[in-house]
From TrEMBL:
Species of provenance: Sneathiella sedimenti
Domain (ATP-grasp): residue spans on this chain: 122-319
Reported cofactor(s): biotin
Domain Biotin carboxylation: 3-448
UniProt keyword terms in alphabetical order: ATP-binding, Biotin, Ligase, Nucleotide-binding
Lipoyl-binding domain residues: 576-660
NCBIfam families: PRK08591.1
Name of the protein in its database record: Acetyl-CoA carboxylase biotin carboxylase subunit
Record-linked PANTHER family: CARBOXYLASE:PYRUVATE/ACETYL-COA/PROPIONYL-COA CARBOXYLASE, METHYLCROTONOYL-COA CARBOXYLASE SUBUNIT ALPHA, MITOCHONDRIAL-RELATED
InterPro entries: ATP-grasp, BC-like_N, Biotin_BS, Biotin_carboxylase_complex, Biotin_carboxylation_dom, Biotin_COase_C, Biotin_lipoyl, CPAse_ATP-bd
Length: 663
């Protein structure tokens, strides 16, 4: 037994909150760590104690092992839970914890080392007779060797970073002529993300399902699995939607995959929570992909269908206790689906977004669970992953869970930040997903640029926005007036009151006028279209209206003068009254001025003054929210000025380059 009474959570955001909740429920003293950017974060406020560990950049805070261990010593922490990401799969950190006499709530450093390298892991799995994808995982990393191995395996080929995951350092190559370039770019991304250039090759299994099995092992030789999760809905190899159980799973297939996952864990003397990931083809053949030696982002769906608190079980096993259950004790009931809510703009190639959350209220309902680390007023910085929350729904059937999740997303109040909420609702409503037929090709096949393009607000939405604008401004004026009578609101002795707004709509602008009606409600002209809007009820951020007799329930917010955000049926629209609000710096796009799309670090700059560029020329690479983004020229011409410098920090809308456009 390795008894401990206090746990430091070496992480941030929703997973830190999640771990703290379970640890506190078991009676442990909890310690949070935080960077300067997270001083007011939810996980800091929840913990019994919190220790500042450095500036915002992760290399100087959450990834600095010495600072984490110093914080543990300062707070008297006897155990460390790493969450996921950051140091959770760092074998050196696990060793350092043990050397400091601190219990690492996770597997042994040896298991992390072995499974953290895809090449070594695959060799071990082949030896353990776990089905594996044909590929190349040997030490020789020369281009010639890799190219020859690819020819032998046969195209299409997946190039993967041996030391990483999350889609970074991963390239799908269909033809030999594109392989050399893919190897170079994968190496660069892998080195930057994981500190290793090592690559492996695998035969690409086209349009498979991504199915993973949750395993658990104790230090007494007991190993079990807790069923599977389907994580097939992905974008660029990053999971978007996860569910348990897998929609096409059969008892026989579950038994085979579960046995393979248990054998994988047993073969490396595993301890704690782990996930063995497989690719499942249309013929129900499955192949080992990798093993994650930590808690997964998507662990809540397993908790909901098994009734087992995985974090509590991690702590129990780390204390040296046996699992307390056998495989026959594990039963899956009902269905659970999880979506990842990201701060990103799906209309701009999923560009991560920063900003301040002006309003936040999670929806409530039967079977609904939110795992969050955010709060109203919180700034979402460029230094961390753009995932801000996980929304999970449970139901007696998959269809009940799906409907509950859609409604939860629609009824959640979230303003001040661009998110992928509408995209998630579209996924859940898509027939292919509803039928349980989604594979890893699902998003790429069904969500093209046209479908992801910004939605043009309807006449009804512009009318509702204008009326809400009008009432908010009217109430603000009334609150500062002396002797204003409620009975005289919206009344004029000089004829109809006309209030004009100008909203952007698609490529143009639309004039909208609001005029109170003597019989109640408002006459709204959207261009040449007349509509009647009645406000049935309105609170600070919710309203019930009728538009030409059709009832609508919306959420809204006015984050700044002349700006109103409206969520209607899960779709969030931003209305800027262009009479009152000047054009933003975004108006520089296409003018030859190249500005930073977000806060971040410029990793490299590829042009200098005097260079000739074409539309689409790669000017620089910006790293933000753990991803790399190419900065491209939007006009053809000659570079006049280079303000950008490699390795420098930039803020959103900073000027990076000036290009004199050619005629």
């Amino acid at each position: 037994m390795r008894n401990f009474n206090s746990i430091l959570v070496a992480n941030r955001g929703e997973i830190a909150v999640r771990v703290i909740k379970s640890a506190k429920s078991l009676g442990y003293r909890t310690i949070a760590v935080y960077s300067e950017a997270d001083a007011a974060a939810l996980h800091v406020r929840m913990a019994d104690e919190a220790v500042l560990i450095g500036p915002a950049p992760v290399q100087q805070s959450y990834l600095d092992m010495a600072k984490i261990l110093a914080a543990a010593k300062e707070a008297g922490a006897e155990a460390i839970h790493p969450g996921y990401g950051f140091l959770s799969e760092n074998a050196e950190f696990a060793r350092a914890c043990e050397a400091a006499g601190i219990v690492f709530i996770g597997p042994s450093a040896e298991a992390i080392d072995l499974m953290g390298n895809k090449a070594a892991a695959k060799r071990r799995m082949i030896a353990a007779k776990v089905p594996c994808v044909p590929g190349y995982e040997d030490p020789d990393q020369s281009d010639d060797t890799l190219i020859n191995a690819a020819k032998e395996i046969g195209f299409p080929i997946m190039v993967k970073a041996a030391a990483g995951g999350g889609g970074r350092g991963m390239r799908l190559v269909h033809e030999e002529k594109n392989l050399a370039g893919a190897l170079a770019s994968a190496r660069s991304e892998a080195l930057n993300a994981f500190g290793s250039e090592e690559l492996i090759l695998e035969k690409a299994i086209i349009e498979p399902r991504h199915v993973e099995v949750q395993v658990f092992a104790d230090s007494h030789g007991n190993v079990i699995h807790l069923g599977e999760r389907d994580c097939s809905v992905q974008r660029r190899h990053q999971k978007v939607v996860e569910e348990a159980p897998c929609p096409v799973m059969t008892p026989e297939l579950r038994e085979k995959m579960g046995a393979a996952a248990v054998e994988a864990a047993r073969s490396i003397n595993y301890r704690g929570a782990g996930t063995v990931e497989f690719l499942l083809d249309a013929g129900n053949n499955f192949y080992f992909l990798e093993m994650n030696t930590r808690l997964q982002v998507e662990h809540p769906v397993t908790e909901l269908v098994t009734g087992i608190d995985l974090v509590s079980l991690q702590i129990k096993v780390a204390q040296g206790e046996p699992l307390g259950m056998a495989q026959k004790d594990v039963a899956l009931q009902g269905h659970a689906i999880e979506v990842r809510l990201y701060a990103e703009d799906t209309t701009q190639d999923f560009l991560p977004c920063t900003g301040r959350i002006s309003r936040w209220q999670a929806a409530e309902g039967e079977g609904i669970r939110f795992d969050v680390g955010i709060d109203a007023g919180q700034e979402i910085s460029p230094f961390y992953d753009p995932m801000i929350a996980k929304v999970i729904a449970y139901g007696e059937s998959r269809e009940i869970a799906r409907h509950r999740l859609i409604e939860a997303l629609k009824n959640t109040v979230l303003f001040g930040l661009t998110t992928n909420r509408g995209f998630l609702i579209d996924i859940l409503n898509e027939e292919t997903f509803a039928r349980g037929e989604a594979t890893t090709a699902f998003i790429g096949e069904l969500f093209d640029e046209n479908r992801l393009a910004a939605k043009v607000p309807s006449d009804a939405e512009m009318a509702m926005a204008a009326v809400l604008f009008y009432q908010v401004e009217r109430d603000k004026a009334a609150s500062s007036a002396l002797f204003a009578s409620d009975q005289l609101m919206d009344w004029s002795s000089g004829g109809d009151l006309l209030t004009r707004y100008v909203f952007a709509a698609g490529d143009g602008k639309t004039d909208v006028t609001v005029s109170p009606r003597r019989e109640g409600g408002y006459k709204v002209m959207v261009g040449d279209t007349p509509l009647v809007v009645d406000v049935m009820g309105r609170s600070e951020n919710k309203a019930q209206l009728t538009v030409d007799g059709n009832r609508r329930r919306v959420h809204y917010d006015v984050p700044s003068e002349g700006v109103l955000e409206l969520t209607d049926d899960g779709k969030t629209l931003r209305f800027a009254n262009e009479i009152a609000v000047p054009l933003s710096a975004a108006g520089a796009a296409g003018s030859g001025q190249v500005i930073a799309p977000m806060h971040g670090t410029l990793l490299d700059v590829f042009v200098k003054a005097g260079d000739t560029v074409e539309v689409g020329t790669r000017l620089a690479v910006l790293e933000a929210m753990k991803m790399q983004h190419d900065i491209l020229a939007e006009v053809s011409g000659v570079v006049q000025n280079v303000i950008a410098t490699a390795a420098s920090q930039v803020s959103v809308d900073d000027l990076l380059f000036e290009i004199e456009a050619s005629e």
